[in-house]
Structure formats: structure tokens, C-alpha cells
Amino acid sequence: MACPITIYTVLKDFSLPLAALIWAVFSWYRDNKRRLSIRQVGSSITDRVTSVGGSFSTFSIEVTITNDSPRANVVIAYYDLELPWKDDELDPLWDPRELYPPSDFYEIPFMVPLKVPRDSVLNHRRYQNGKLAPGEAFRGSFLAKGHELIPSDLLTQDGIEVRFVVQDTLGRRYRSDPMQIWPEVR
Predict the structure, then answer these.
(1) Stated pTM of the model
(2) What is the arithmetic mean of pLDDT over 128-154?
């Protein structure tokens, strides 16, 4: 008569390999998990939203984006701002090197003075220029233009709460903690 296999026998024989497999999967997942931290590093002078001429708004916010992943590279595809009002046409400013004539400065007409060196702006740090290895960071201004004006009830506030959003090439979105931008009307 054959000895029946008991649960104890199965567990005794397979517990160590099973634990090793679980640990290997967990370690792989932990090491390849993508993490970005986003911090505001600007001030009430650099981090502004401006309604210009009653027709559009401009945005400037200075941030640092750090790849906190243990081993995974992160390639940035897109930047965005989440506002406390709806603006479906909020878009980052175009890379001045892709305009005609090419330039080394981002400029917003009617917003004086806003002529920012390209090397100080994040907008073009995407795809092949947006690769962050573990521990690396980008620091710079994000510049955008929207078609909605600052709501009048927000003009009196000392700061308007926004969130900065980064999307990577795999479609993962990373949101900052609340940040402040300061309103002005021109």
C-alpha cells in the first residue's frame, strides 16, 4: 500500500523554492517600478498665471522632476497642468527651435518680460530629450498658454492651487502635490 502524499510533505518539499520564486517576482517588480517625484522650486516671481488682453492666459511654473526608480529609466512624453478651472486648450509652448526662424529663447508675446533661455525650460525635454535614468533630475520652467481667462474669484487669492502632471511614454501619469501659482492681469 502506497503512502498518501500529505499536505505537510508537499509544503516541506516546495516551500523553499516557492518562497524563492515569490521573492524573485517581488524583487523584479520593486526594482522595475517607475517612480517620479515632482517638486515646485520657483517662487511668486517665477510661478505665474497671467490673463493677457482678455483673450488668453499664460502659465509659468518652475519644477524639479526626479526619477526615484531603483533601476527603471523613465522617458517623458508630455507635461500638463491641472487647474481649478476648465481649460481644454491649455498647451505647452512650442520648442523655439522648431519655429521659423529658430530661436534659443521661449517667448510669450504681451507678457513682459518673458524671454526664457531654452536650456531653462522643460517643454522640449520629452522623448529622446526626456530620458531620466534612476537618480537623475530635470529642473526648469514649464511654459504654457490657455484660452480661458483666470476666473475672477481666483484673482484676489494670494496663490492658485494647481498640480503639475508628467506622462511617460508608457502612458503612466505622475501628479505632483498641490503647488501654487500667482495670478496677475495685464
Answers:
(1) 0.80
(2) 92
